[in-house]
């Protein structure tokens, strides 16, 4: 009998019973008021007159009317750069102790996103909410005695003057509470190794020493780590070395594209739990089984707004137009794609993090990540979002009985001068590229009426090439960095796509 595990499970269940479920709209009103009060004496708060907003009869409406939208480039150019010039009280009181480095899915240069002590605490609280929610998943008591593999970026944060820099997963892991450290793997020493390949090698070497019950991390890198452990120990699947593995907390991207290839590494099913931890904060978590939807965390230092994800509101660089309408939480509709905006305890204001979401259950405030604003392919009017691409690729997996964990697409003219969508599908399974092209085209026509119209006019067709999935990881290694929060871009412009194709030829991955 797992006595200690039974005690932990009982405490979690009691906490869930005693913790009242707040009213999300009221929670959001309270969060915004606290944010405005806290930051009213900052340079940003004075510039946009937070004092006046706080005196308004409708604070949320006045806030939306008084402050423009910001993406990273705009807020960094106008405000955050001042932190690096020695200023304090810029968009949040004091100076941030951390900056989260994020290359996102575009470009080589890292974004440097302020992370306040309040944000570190908010992420910690969200993590506790996630642990508490495990009581809803019918896990046995002994699960709560097992260790958790958190596969993030290095916890060896770099000192830069009076602050430290690293990816958000490394910042979070470096601040884990003392009581959790005995459960946390790969442990502080291995977690500090900066090079991804070296860190994964150490994980593989030590894997037999650990009794892993749960995994946490971005799917693409988690899959690569599991393959390394399996290969190092000459296993058939990961459960031969971690027989008690029962939970995988996925994060950062939609899990479905990786589901089939991930399951191939398992000896038995595991409970997949989605989380939404971005460089800017912990936004949502899955609280119940039998869904991939996540509940927005509405009472924990982040205020949410939503912009309808429509072509007329999206600029070519993925930012939103100045006249794009904003929707508040109580007015959203289910199954409609929105661009998500956040204002946070780190001094991000009406900030576009670049993700698109949809509400699957408005009453529960449950959402799904549907893509990125920059992953919106609208050349010649196809209006193709990444969630439609993911769905189409999943249909290919089922139709051809293959695994396609990664893909990338671009729209450009072919040798005949006509526009095509050029796709590279990452798979180790054999399939005919022409048959894949035809099926992919048909799937997209069925799923998207705008794509179907474009195909009857300016869009000539689809061209598919299959390549080794490892090429996507190597591309990230060359252009950004392996592991951590790094995600592969799904849609490229012509210039970036030319670099990608040159890379593949240099690697002899294509003819």
UniProtKB/TrEMBL annotation:
A single cellular component GO annotation: cytoplasm
InterPro entries: GH3 (IPR004993), GH3_C (IPR055378), GH3_M (IPR055377)
Domain GH3 middle: 297-364
Domain GH3 C-terminal span(s) in chain numbering: 390-495
Gene Ontology MF: a single term: acid-amino acid ligase activity
Pfam families linked: GH3, GH3_C, GH3_M
Residue stretches in coiled coil: none
UniProt-listed PANTHER family: GH3 DOMAIN-CONTAINING PROTEIN
Name recorded for this polypeptide: GH3 auxin-responsive promoter family protein
Organism this protein belongs to: Christiangramia lutea
């Amino acid at each position: 009998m797992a006595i200690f595990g039974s005690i932990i499970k009982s405490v979690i269940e009691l906490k869930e019973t005693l913790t009242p479920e707040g009213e999300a709209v009221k929670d959001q009103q309270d969060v915004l008021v606290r944010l405005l009060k806290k930051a009213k004496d900052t340079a940003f708060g004075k510039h946009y007159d937070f004092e006046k907003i706080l005196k308004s009869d409708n604070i949320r409406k006045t806030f939306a009317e008084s402050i423009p939208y910001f993406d990273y480039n705009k807020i960094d150019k106008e405000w955050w750069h001042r932190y690096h010039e020695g200023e304090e009280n810029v968009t949040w009181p004091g100076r941030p102790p951390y900056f989260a480095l994020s290359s996102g899915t575009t470009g080589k240069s890292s974004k440097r996103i302020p992370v306040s002590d309040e944000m570190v605490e908010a992420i910690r609280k969200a993590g506790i909410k996630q642990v508490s929610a495990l009581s809803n998943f019918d896990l046995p008591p002994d699960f709560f005695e097992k260790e958790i593999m958190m596969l993030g970026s290095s916890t060896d944060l770099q000192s830069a003057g009076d602050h430290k820099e690293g990816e958000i997963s490394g910042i979070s892991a470096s601040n884990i509470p003392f009581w959790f450290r005995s459960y946390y793997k790969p442990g502080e020493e291995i977690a500090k190794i900066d090079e991804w390949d070296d860190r994964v090698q150490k994980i593989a070497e030590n894997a037999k020493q650990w009794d892993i019950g749960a995994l946490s991390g971005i799917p693409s890198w988690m899959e690569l780590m599991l393959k390394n452990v399996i290969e190092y120990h000459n296993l058939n699947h990961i459960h031969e070395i971690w027989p008690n593995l029962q939970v995988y907390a996925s994060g950062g991207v939609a899990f479905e594209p990786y589901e089939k290839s991930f399951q191939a590494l398992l000896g038995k099913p595991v409970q997949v739990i989605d989380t939404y931890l971005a460089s800017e904060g912990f936004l949502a978590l899955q609280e119940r089984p039998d869904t991939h939807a996540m509940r927005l965390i509405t009472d924990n230092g982040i205020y949410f707004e939503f912009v309808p994800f429509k072509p007329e509101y999206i600029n070519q660089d993925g930012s939103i137009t100045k006249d794009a309408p904003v929707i508040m939480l109580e007015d959203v509709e289910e199954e409609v794609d929105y661009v998500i905006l956040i204002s946070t305890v780190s001094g991000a204001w009406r900030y576009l993090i670049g993700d698109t979401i949809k509400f699957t259950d408005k009453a529960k405030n449950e959402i799904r990540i549907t893509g990125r604003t920059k992953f919106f392919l609208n050349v010649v009017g196809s209006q193709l979002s990444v969630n439609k691409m993911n769905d189409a690729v999943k249909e290919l997996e089922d139709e051809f009985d293959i695994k396609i964990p990664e893909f990338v697409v671009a729209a450009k003219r072919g040798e005949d001068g006509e526009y095509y969508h050029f796709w590279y599908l990452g798979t180790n399974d054999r399939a005919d590229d022409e048959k894949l092209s035809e099926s992919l085209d048909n799937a997209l026509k069925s799923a998207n009426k705008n794509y179907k119209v474009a195909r009857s006019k300016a869009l000539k067709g689809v061209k598919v090439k299959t390549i080794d999935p490892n090429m996507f990881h190597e591309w990230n290694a060359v252009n950004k960095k392996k592991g951590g929060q790094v995600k592969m871009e799904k849609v490229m412009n012509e210039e970036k796509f030319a670099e990608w194709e040159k890379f593949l030829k240099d690697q002899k991955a294509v003819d």
